[in-house]
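User: Could you walk me through two proteins back to back? I'd like the raw sequence and the structure tokens for each, with a short line separating them so I can tell where one ends and the next begins.

Assistant: Of course. Protein one, sequence then structure:
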Amino acid sequence: MNEADKPAAEPDAAASPSPASTTPEAPAAGTTSPAEAAAPAIELEGGFSYRGQGGVNDGFAEISIAEDGMSALALLYPPVGEGKPLEPDSIRELLAGLGVTSGILWDEIADAVLRCNLDRKPMRDFVVARGSRPEDEVPEHAALEPRFRKNGPVVPDGALRVDYRELSSLAVVKKGEILARTQPRIVGKAGVDVRGRETGFARRSVENVLPGKNCARVEGGIEASVDGLLAINGDRLDVEEILIVKGDVDYHTGHIVFPGDVVIEGRVGDGFKVWSGGSVVCKDTLDAFDVNAKKDLLCAQGIIGRRGGQVRVGGELKSKFVQNCKVAVRGNAHVASAVVGCRFYTLGKLDLGDKGVLMGGELYTVHGLRCGRLGNEAHQRTMVHAGTDFTVQQQLDQANERLRVLAFKAKKAKEASAATPGKGIERLKEALDRSIVELSGIIGRLLLALDADENAQVEVTGDVYPGSVVEICRVSVVVEEPLKACRFRLDKTAGRVIVERLSK
């Protein structure tokens, strides 16, 4: 740096903000000692300070204090030519003159002065003192867990493909799950600026949630007392055991998977699941894609299957109509008007009343059927299997399929043994034969359990059309002529299904 570029070489400009009577003239180089030439620190407008040391070519420093008083910055200038180096003591005097007494970084100052003198380069905005800011006092509080703060569904990070039906905006919680964690009290601490003046601390206002319905305060926070839906009502946490969907089940809600009862006031969109650990109540028509109710299913309107829709009910089913879907009910089923084109399974009884219609499809019912009409004028094939347990029938079908596969493998093993006899193939044949014998025993036991109610009856108060087949405990009768107001029951002695006229 040459003398023309050096700020300290222009004393008139440096001294101009202060009165002339308080600013000493810079003596000519070599005419005074350093002690005599040292000028006191001058605080300029805006907290800016200037300090001259010796002649015009000597190193010097400028210091400013931030407006909030929490830091002091220095501009360090190296000596020029044969000028005297900058001394840490000069910075000490400057700081003292400005009243800086707290948070002085002496080690950093010494290193910076050394680098400035050696590198002969100015150092700008170097922090020489730093105050300590006040720390707010925070009361003890319960803070909501972060996952419950989200608004709407969140797409997983890194997901290449997203099925938005899988993204639910519902905050479903489990019993014992922590909803909010207790945050300990933080004691406030006063701050100190670089002049040693104390700054008071504030008392921070924080969110504090309280336990409400089905919530309990435990060590460490607030937990859910039951499975359910978390509802945040102001500063209170409630867990609702019943989920009420005010509108439709669609992309706004995503799939409904809930541990308690579900009440749907709108429609269920095509392709959306409804799984409930309790009962499901649907006030509109239920477009069933995948519906699973652990307890009862009640549909005020009806059920229409979509894309091979499946409905599973652990309790009773009540609906206005059921159409084009697969339905499995562990209890009784009550349908007011019609069951059309369904594969319908029930471990109880299907009751369609005196006017309800069973048309097309296949029905498996343990305790029978009551309806107003069976089949239709087009002679659409309608099958009724009464008195048999459909769960046993499903196991029987699976066992028969495994038996068919084993029999095929045994046949191939026998052929291979005849072509190339050996111990390995003989052991395989023996293993297959043992499996066939074991599976045949299982099938025999299932056949004994298949007939669950020999007293099951099929009662039709109106027309029975040709094309209908009624089977009771695996004994069937094909309706070839129109019938009216009749009852089908099993005559165990004769081993056939008999048809009786219903009395008025």
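----
Protein two, same layout:
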Amino acid sequence: MIDQSYDQIFTSFEEISSNFKRSNQYFDILYDSFSSVFIEKSPFAEDISVNVKTSGIVVRTFDGTWKEIALDDFSKLNNVTEKLPKVINKGEEIAEFEGWKLDKEIKPKINPKEVSIEDKLKKIRYISNFVQNYDKRIVLCKIKYMETETTRIFVNNEGCQLRQVIPRTRLFIIPIVKEGMKIDFDHFLTDGIVGFEIFDELTDNKLEQIANTSLEMLNAKKPPLGKFPVIVDPGMAGIIAHESFGHGLEADQVLRERSYLKEKLNKQVASDICVICDTPNTEDVLGFYFFDDEGIRAGKNVLVENGILKNFIYDRRSASVLNGDPQGNGRRQSYAHVVHPRMSNTYFEPGDYDLEEMISEIKEGVMVNHSYFGMEDPIGGGLQCMSKKGYLIQNGEKTQLLRSIALTGYVLDVLQNIDAISKDPTHLDGGVCGKGHADDVPVSDGGSYLKIKEVLISPG
């Protein structure tokens, strides 16, 4: 546990940083503090996990490779400069950026830290009881609640002096329904850079809607198997942008020759109506931040413009090697994890079609709703995504409700088959992304509705 004021931390960090000349070597130091509350409720159990505060420091320099030291005790900083290598003429191996200063603390409307665990449980129990008692076919209701607060303080020998405090809250509601031998569910997710006010939208009317979307699944039919025209909702668009496409753009994968997109820079990878971006400073969504864990200002990375692959997703090192322009994607889970190039908020930009117009153009096809799962394949570029439900489209009209649907194929074929994008405002859902099976960071993904001329679908 590190217990120092922000001013003390800044002063100590600047003193340490001054020992490393930028022309000789790059150096940075990061303070990380994390607190969280997780509550998971079902009719059978209430699981509560509280992390009041975990904090630490990571000190790093580049002498041809990264050398870093992680500390959980502020007193251990006293001799840290003696443990790091001192070199000369290595400064140019990490691209230099202009130093900047920032001190931002996002304060939610209702600070979750000021709400007792009992009051949080009271709210969650009310939702659980309301939904489960709404209809006898609702056999149980699962609720997952997450709140976190992350503080990052960053100093480097380029002149960066940065601090950000970001609260994140997420709520997941799953009513499970049963009628005869049929068991199914739908889900509701809300999240963002908010506090306990996340519950404000959950009026009784809203809870009835959430219950009914699960009850409707009892009448859903099995989806067809084969290649069809498909419309995907913003959630599934986000899964395609993030899981199927975005992981192949992480520049460490490119450098390791483990990306199917390595040779695609400045080449056509999608239809010319596609614009795909990764934007860390997208306001209010779960993946938002002001700066990354390498002090790079959060910007907008246009990955695909008019179908042309324009950029990879960089951290400082990969941007230096590939002559890229980093937009704030060097991220670490905590002070005890290393930096990787990571996505933040990845999405398709809106197009100029009306959704109803897109549906009307399909004689026989499927509309896919509520993304539920996606598998990354940065080496092969395979597409494997699953939705919770969908609708049959017949003669230009949305008809029968369908059970879960899987989309499979090659992601570049899918991207190049997109022939319409709706003009609906960009919608992003939040979640957690791992690098393989570790290094979790908060992200969001989404977009507008996409119409794909043909893709292979099957029951999920």
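The mean pLDDT is 96.

Let me know if you want the two compared in more detail.
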